Amino acid sequence: MNNLKIAKIFYMIAEYLEMEEDPFRPQAYKKAAFTLENMEED
């Protein structure tokens, strides 16, 4: 898997956690996804 695919999965997990009304974990997944998207190496 490359970083963009993993980032997409992390964004989906964040969306699910937001539906569960978890205030902190979605932010962590979004931050990790953003970091993966902006990495130069796969």
Automatic annotation (TrEMBL):
Which Gene3D superfamilies did the record assign? DNA polymerase beta, N-terminal domain-like
Q: Where is the Crossover junction endonuclease MUS81-like HHH domain?
A: 1-41
Q: Which InterPro entries match?
A: DNA_pol_lamdba_lyase_dom_sf, HHH_MUS81
* Name the record gives this protein: Crossover junction endonuclease MUS81-like HHH domain-containing protein
